[in-house]
Structure formats: C-alpha cells, structure tokens
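Q: Convert this sequence to structure tokens.
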Amino acid sequence: MLRPFTPDDLEMAFKWNNDPLVLEAEGEAEHSWEEVLEAYEYLSNNGLLFIIEAIDIPKPEPIGEICLLHDNDYERLGVEDKNELIYCIPILIGKPNYWGKGYGKDAVKAILKFAFEEMGADRIFATDVFSFSERSINLFKSLGFDEMRRDRNRIYYRGRHYDIIDFCITRGKYFALHSKFSTRENK
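A:
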C-alpha cells in the first residue's frame, strides 16, 4: 500500500538511507541529515512522494518509498518530443528483510497505473540503475521496461567497474501489457 510521505517520515527515511545493507546495495556512502533532508525536499517539491507500507503482516509498517518525479530533461533521457509528459520513479525498500518479497514490484505497478491512467504520462523512466543491482534490473524488466541507455564502466565499486542503466516504459507498451498484469493478479 502507498500513502503520502509526510515530514514525520524524515527520521525513518534517514535511517533507511543509512542502513549498512541498503548502502551496500545502493553502492553509496553514509548520508548526513542535511543531505537526506535536501533529497526529500527535492522529491517532495518536484514529484509525488509515497511511503510503501507492508499491510499483509500482523502489524503493518512502513518499509520504503517511491516517487513519481516529474522530469523535463528531455535531452538526457533521449526524448525528442518536448510535449511528452515524462516521469522518473526512484524507489527504495529501506528495510532489507522485505527485499525480494514483491513489495517493490507492487509499488511500481501502482505508480505505473496512477501515472499512465490518471496523470496521462507518456513515458516512465527508472534511471541510474547500477548493473550490479540484479534485483532492480529484474524488477523493471519484469514490468515491461526496456533498457534505453547504458553508460559502460561508469562507477567503480567493490573493486570493479559497473555500468549505469536507464530503463523506460512507454504509454503504449504499458497499455499493451496492462491486461497481462491484471490477468496474473486475478489468478
């Protein structure tokens, strides 16, 4: 389930963004309070930021976040038509014990439905996915995203160079696949 992010969620987001397992998976260093505050202010001011809650457990709890972030950097994203409505969807499951259990996939599906069916989005991007993040790559591919760009050997992490990948799903592809997603959910 998704609910709107509020300022009361900042302390929890700070903990998620500094969890050692999350940092390792994201290939990042610890974040200061000011860095986290600045990031969440940016997301809140430029998109729709949501908390992902696990509700299928005895005591529902917040486990991550996802944002529908308006992006008009058409050149960076390789979009020629400046009239297209495009978004990026940064996502974080901040509690590692919930990784691999479908919560991220459900959150992305809910955001896609909202973006395409309610907001009229033309394209949704998942940007800056590290090539060592197999879970993220598999998630986006499973939902119909296509690889749009790959910057080879862009980052150095754990003694190796890795690529940075951008994924995209178009409005047409979403609607072509939508009945497939709905059919699976009803089984």
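The mean pLDDT is 89.
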